[in-house]
Specification:
- The protein has two domains: 94 residues, 2-Layer Sandwich (Phosphorylase Kinase, domain 1); 186 residues, Aminoglycoside 3'-phosphotransferase, Chain: A, domain 2, CATH 3.90.1200.
- The protein has ten helices and ten strands.
- Helix 6 crosses helix 9.
- The longest helix has 22 residues.
- The chain is 40% helix and 14% strand.
Amino acid sequence: MATARTADVRPEIDAVLVRRLVDSQFPRWAELPLKLVDPAGSDHVIYRLGEELAVRLPRHAGAVGQARKEFEWLPRLAPHLPLAIPVPVGVGEPDFGYPWPWAVSRWLEGDVATVDALADSTGAAIELARFLAALRRFAPEGGAKAGRECLSSWSLSERDRATRVAIAEVDGVFDAAAMAELWDAAMSAPGWDGPPVWFHGDFHTGNLLTTHGRLSAVIDFGGLGIGDPACDLMIAFTLMTAGSRAAFRDALGVDDATWLRGRGWALATGLNAYTSYAAVNPRVAAQTTRQITEALTG
């Protein structure tokens, strides 16, 4: 876990550093060209390494555990899932002033999924439901005790204070009364009473890839964990419309309480991203406005 002292560390990451790290720790790939992937996510700087590999380096201390977690679990999960996932092939160590573990994974071709292309697709919605169902069917090995310290265990209640602050902050931009009503209902909904299951933990449009207009891969398993799967229902509100959302819910067999918690997750994560980035990033503003609006619609 990051200490307060390291939480705000943002190391300089450039091609020179990445080249030195790769060449010194994985000399078999020393001749492969590097190309910056831009834009990348908020957690990692990503370089494509040759044609078949990607190097991912955490930008901040909050993402430090992801390399080892994904190396531990994704190779085990991959054979059981109907869509491709990025299988790590190595974990690099801190060096040359870079302070954290980093990863080399198999490169996955594809374009980031878009609302314009897939929002109304019941086929895509059902495919995503099948992916989540397959993920949940993979039994946590021995409670996944080995390496479990890196696994996420999200709780909606942990977001209560921050979400209520965000609701007040965006009053006038969105319907604060409607958001407060939804949040109260989500917080009061019965909790998950099934066995702990695997969840992706950050299952939104930006972490889906398509090829030739069809879903092909799910990426970025930094939020991978075991527990209540309601957090993964955010995809219904980041990507889908009412019709495809209904098909998704039916295919996955989601009960009322879990669906309500999922709406709460979509609201909370949408508000967090909106208040953090919307003022400086029009793309995030548009995406999170849609997410919050769809969560309110249900």
